[in-house]
């Protein structure tokens, strides 16, 4: 734990005080952590490379295609059109709440990373058009995405925990929904009231010049294209419940439901509907795609660095050491699950690793019937979101897209995630009073 603490402090000092590039800072700290944790010298670099590969393997295609799609949605005027329609529907006064609802609906079937890169252009379009504070408007929508990621199946971590604890997927979803709604409100719009003065100049790649009305795509084309990934993923999520047993159809749907394939299909459709159909040449579209990837290159490197740090800590046995220490404490099972997940999350930065590690430790308590398995899924899910900071890729994704200082990212993103975690635990304990 001392090594983890030293490395996190070193990382903060290198990035914020010494102004070292975050990717280089992660490399230096990851290597130092590996050596201090006693990992053989010849395996430190292997752990660093594995961590980078593991995290980018799942995110590289999604983030790159998402950035291209976001760029096209912005430059074509589709984001402007969507923003105008939303404001006309609810009024500028309630636009933040409209975005929260949109984020929650989209967040249920969508992985967090995909939802983030898809919704950021919409957030920034509203921010630029109506000259609103970026963090104040954007954080509540991001909070809704985070809550659905941590609490609600079919997201990877809660779904895996449901299986591990032999919980009921539908019951867990209903309990999760009861907890998610007040959590989003409190950690989103209510908390965001304190963030209006945070200075932010969001990533320029999603900032497009305002177009005259006659040059904008139609309302249907704008919404359809921007939400196509959501619709495709929802279709694949509900497909198993249609009762179709044909092996070929199941394989085809599994292929088409892969997030990378979904994003590729969405980008191909958008290239036509928001590009070619609007009279834009393919060379101009290709140039905008190139610009989009250039703009997120550093973000990808930073995320890779965070993956390296996480892998080194995991290889060094940090999560197992934390688990062994916490077994000695006598506390209610639901609270214990939350504490274990929270400490591993804070130490390693990965919500998924924190959730699955905590599940392995407390699984005996669940199988003996001393605790509601559905609530244990949610308790660990809440703990796995606790205090995201410099060792979490989500921290850097938010910081770089919204172009914030580390201090303001702690003040906004890290505090929001901590509120989600604590409020989530409170919701679990309240429901536990009424169910057996």
UniProtKB/TrEMBL annotation:
- How is this protein situated with respect to the membrane? Multi-pass membrane protein
Q: Which domain of life is it from?
A: Bacteria
- Please list every transmembrane segment annotated in the UniProt record, as residue ranges: 28-48, 55-74, 94-120, 132-152, 172-192, 220-242, 254-275, 296-315, 335-363, 375-398, 418-435
**InterPro entries, A to Z:** Glcn_transporter (IPR003474)
Q: Which UniProt keywords apply?
A: Cell membrane, Membrane, Transmembrane, Transmembrane helix, Transport
- Where, per UniProt, does this protein localize? Cell membrane
Q: Name one Pfam family in it.
A: GntP_permease
Q: Which family does it belong to?
A: Belongs to the GntP permease family.
Q: What protein name applies here?
A: Gluconate:H+ symporter
